[in-house]
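Example 9 (inverse folding). The structure is encoded as follows.
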C-alpha cells in the first residue's frame, strides 16, 4: 500500500499531483496548471492548460495574455475530475477577486491547498470557507506572532483623518494593483467617502475589471491631464513604485501612505519614505493562521511561502503534525 498522500508531491517549483500529471501554482510553464489566484507569484502564462475561477482567468488574461482556448473556468463549489480519478473543487480563499483554495480528493484522502488567504471581511471578494481535510497546505506570509493586523476601519479613519488635517495637500496611497488597491477603494466607500478617487494610469484596467465582475468602486478618474490644483485634498491611489518617483511630483504636496501588512514593521515604512503607514493586508495574520489550522484540524499541516519556522514550531507545541515545504518562487508582491 502506498504511504498516505504520496500522490501529491512537493517539488521546488510547485505541488505536483502525480496521478493527474498536473501542478498547483507552478513556477514555470507546464502542460496542466491548477491556479489559486492571479498574483504573479502563483499565476504565470505559458501553460498548456490553466484551470482557475473565471475571475482569475480574466485577471491572467489582462496581465499575462493567457489564451482563453487553453483555460478551463471553474466556479466556486464546482468540481472537476482530472486524470487518475483526482477531483478538484474550488473554494473561496478571501484573498483577492477570484482567489480560491483547491480541495483535492483522491484515494479516499482530502487535501486543501489554500494559495494565499485572509480571514477578514473584504467587500471585493467572497470570504474564506473553512473546509475539512486530511492535509491542509497553508501559506505563512505573516507567520510570526508580531504580525497582528488592526481593524481596517481604524486604518481608514487614519487615512481620512490625514486628508482632513492637511488642507491643500493630497493623500497618495501606494497599494498593489491587484487586490489591495480595489480593497482600499471599496473600504473607503464603506467608510462613507463618496468623492472621486483618483488613479495612477497603471491602476485603471484592473479596477475596471473588478467593476466588470460586479465590484462597485464608485467614482474613479485618472490623474493624467488633471491640473495640480484640482487634486488638493484628493485621495490618489498608485502602485508602491510610484510613491516617490517623478510622477508623484505633479501632485499637490502629497502625503505618502502605503497600504501593506509590512507597515507593521516601522523600518519598512522608513525605508519606503512613507509618512502614513496603513497596516492593511490581504493575508492572514498570526492569530488568523493559527486559528484557521485549529478550525480545519487536519491530520497534517504543510507550510509554505513565508515564515515557515515559527508556524512549524507552533504546530509542534500544539501537538499537530506539520512540515515545511520550502517551495521556491513565491513572494509577497508588496502585500
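The amino acid assigned to each position is listed next.
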Amino acid at each position: 500500500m502506498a504511504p498516505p498522500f504520496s500522490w501529491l508531491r512537493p517539488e521546488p517549483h510547485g505541488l505536483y499531483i502525480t496521478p493527474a500529471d498536473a501542478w498547483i501554482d507552478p513556477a514555470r510553464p507546464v502542460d496542466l496548471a491548477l491556479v489559486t489566484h492571479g498574483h504573479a507569484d502563483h499565476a504565470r502564462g505559458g501553460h498548456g492548460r490553466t484551470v482557475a475561477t473565471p475571475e482569475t482567468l480574466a485577471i491572467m488574461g489582462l496581465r499575462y495574455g493567457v489564451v482563453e482556448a487553453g483555460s478551463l473556468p471553474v466556479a466556486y463549489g464546482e468540481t472537476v475530475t482530472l486524470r487518475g480519478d483526482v477531483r478538484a473543487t474550488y473554494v473561496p480563499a478571501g484573498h483577492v477577486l477570484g482567489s480560491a483554495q483547491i480541495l483535492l480528493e483522491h484515494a479516499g484522502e482530502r487535501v486543501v491547498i489554500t494559495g494565499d488567504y485572509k480571514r477578514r471581511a473584504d467587500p471585493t471578494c467572497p470570504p474564506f470557507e473553512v473546509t475539512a481535510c486530511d492535509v491542509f497546505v497553508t501559506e505563512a506570509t505573516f507567520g510570526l506572532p508580531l504580525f497582528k493586523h488592526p481593524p481596517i476601519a481604524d486604518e481608514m479613519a487614519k487615512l481620512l483623518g490625514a486628508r482632513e488635517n492637511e488642507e491643500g495637500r493630497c493623500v497618495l496611497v501606494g497599494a498593489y494593483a491587484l487586490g489591495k488597491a480595489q480593497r482600499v477603494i471599496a473600504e473607503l466607500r464603506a467608510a462613507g467617502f463618496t468623492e472621486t478617487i483618483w488613479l495612477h494610469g497603471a491602476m485603471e484596467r484592473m479596477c475596471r475589471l473588478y467593476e466588470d465582475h460586479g465590484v462597485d468602486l464608485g467614482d474613479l478618474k485618472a490623474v493624467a491631464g488633471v491640473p495640480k490644483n484640482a487634486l488638493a485634498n484628493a485621495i490618489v491611489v498608485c502602485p508602491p513604485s510610484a510613491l516617490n518617483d517623478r510622477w508623484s511630483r505633479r501632485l499637490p504636496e502629497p502625503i505618502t501612505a502605503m497600504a501593506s501588512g509590512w507597515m507593521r514593521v516601522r523600518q519598512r515604512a522608513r525605508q519606503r519614505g512613507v509618512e502614513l503607514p496603513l497596516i492593511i493586508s490581504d493575508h492572514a495574520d498570526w492569530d488568523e493562521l493559527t486559528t484557521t489550522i485549529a478550525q480545519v484540524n487536519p491530520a497534517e499541516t504543510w507550510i509554505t511561502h513565508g515564515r515557515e519556522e515559527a508556524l512549524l514550531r507552533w504546530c509542534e507545541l500544539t501537538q499537530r503534525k506539520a512540515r515545511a515545504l520550502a517551495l521556491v518562487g513565491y513572494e509577497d508582491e508588496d502585500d
